[in-house]
């Protein structure tokens, strides 16, 4: 057969997406083994029944045909209102594109920001799809390391050094995998670098409803940043709607108009009945989002309490998101070796830090995604494995 394109064959760079342990854990579960899985950011509760009822009602009412490619006007207005309230500036529906999840929004944003061969900066550690998303648009990912010892706040000196000649910077706060919530000083520094080097900033804010300490500062709310920021949002994490694939990209109206054209040639929009359910979900208000987030704060405390003072396990306390990063370098093992041994010995699956970039080597990402009692058991098994090394 003809060879596939170089671009599609090299999306993961070295050919490894770093998630082999996740696939092995899933294979064990499929074979009937009991595994306490703390890998991906999937809620342990499903989408709320009333949201599903609205999805069913909309589908039965006939909203199963082609929907408007930019998104339903009412949903775009609702997202614009949500952003206007949190960003402190006015958004209209013309500033919003509804996308099939946050991942599609990331893809669209990099198409808007980058041409073939452009350098696209991202903070390391990063969510596993980020480098491949950048390669998928023909750009070159340039990771800039953040340090565990600094709470994984961006290294502004390193960013400034990497910025000359770049076209974009991808940031994520609250952060997956680290749980870092970027400080006012970090965002002010990012804004200064973006202005000095004329960068687009692509701000992934899908965890904005999960903040445990401090406050989430939307990037576009920083003075001077609205005209150069593309904000990614989603209902996946805020409303436990991961499988519904409903997100958005917000930014200057002229750019969104071009991205509507891109959507016409790629996704062709999001099913109307799912958009109707999303509109209903947003109408439930912040109380519904707080209820979805509350279990992760409890489990954060469970983990931090159980490993406090441990000689070989150090938590990087997360200020947000549904994960905790554990520094396990004192064990002498890599994150990959520790995670593999933990799965074999204790049937607990976590993600090796190396899955998220070089800066997370020697760490584990623990997802806070099991019911409290099962989560506590998983943490106890993890501690037992570390004690036995």
TrEMBL record:
Keywords for the protein's UniProt record, in alphabetical order: Aminotransferase, Pyridoxal phosphate, Transferase
SUPFAM superfamilies per record: PLP-dependent transferases
UniProt EC number: 2.6.1.-
Domain of life of the native organism: Bacteria
Protein's GO biological process: amino acid metabolic process
Domain (Aminotransferase class I/classII large): residue spans on this chain: 34-382
Catalytic activity reported: L-aspartate + 2-oxoglutarate = oxaloacetate + L-glutamate
Required cofactor names: pyridoxal 5'-phosphate
EC top class, as a word: transferase
Molecular functions per Gene Ontology: L-aspartate:2-oxoglutarate aminotransferase activity; pyridoxal phosphate binding
Pfam family, one: Aminotran_1_2
Family: Belongs to the class-I pyridoxal-phosphate-dependent aminotransferase family.
Official protein name in the record: Aminotransferase
Naturally occurring in which organism (per UniProt): Roseicyclus persicicus
């Amino acid at each position: 057969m003809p060879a596939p394109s170089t671009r599609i064959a090299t999306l993961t760079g070295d050919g490894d997406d770093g998630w082999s342990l996740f696939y092995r854990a899933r294979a064990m579960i499929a074979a009937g083994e009991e595994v306490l899985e703390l890998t991906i950011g999937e809620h342990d509760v499903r989408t709320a029944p009333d949201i599903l009822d609205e999805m069913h009602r909309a589908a039965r009412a006939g909203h199963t045909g082609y929907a408007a490619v930019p998104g339903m006007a009412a949903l775009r207005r609702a997202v614009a209102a949500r952003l206007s309230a949190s960003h402190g500036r006015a958004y209209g529906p013309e500033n919003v594109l509804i996308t099939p999840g946050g991942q599609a929004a990331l893809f669209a944003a990099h198409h808007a920001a980058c041409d073939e061969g452009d350098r696209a900066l991202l903070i390391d550690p990063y969510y596993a799809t980020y480098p491949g998303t950048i390669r998928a648009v023909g750009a070159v990912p340039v990771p800039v390391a953040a340090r565990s010892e600094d709470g994984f706040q961006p290294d502004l000196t390193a960013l400034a050094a990497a910025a000359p000649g770049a076209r974009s910077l991808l940031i994520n706060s609250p952060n997956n995998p680290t749980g870092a919530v970027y400080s006012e000083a970090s965002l002010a520094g990012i804004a200064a670098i973006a202005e000095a080097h004329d960068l687009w900033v692509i701000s992934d804010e899908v965890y904005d409803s999960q903040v445990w300490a401090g406050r989430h500062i939307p990037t576009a709310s920083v003075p001077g940043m609205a005209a150069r920021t593309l904000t990614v949002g989603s209902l996946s994490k805020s409303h436990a709607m991961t499988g519904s694939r409903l997100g958005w990209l917000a930014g200057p109206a002229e750019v969104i108009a071009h991205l509507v054209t891109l959507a016409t040639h790629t996704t062709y929009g999001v099913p109307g009945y799912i958009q109707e359910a999303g509109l209903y979900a947003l109408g439930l208000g912040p109380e519904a989002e707080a209820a979805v987030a509350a279990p992760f704060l409890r489990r954060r405390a469970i983990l931090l309490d159980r490993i406090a003072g441990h000689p070989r396990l150090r938590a990087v306390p997360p200020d947000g998101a549904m994960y905790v990063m554990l520094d396990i370098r004192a064990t002498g093992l890599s994150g990959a070796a520790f995670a593999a041994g933990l799965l074999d010995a204790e049937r607990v699956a976590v993600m090796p830090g190396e899955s998220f970039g070089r800066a997370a080597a020697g760490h584990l990402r623990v997802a806070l995604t099991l019911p409290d009692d099962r989560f506590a058991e998983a943490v106890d098994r993890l501690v037992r494995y570390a004690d036995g090394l």
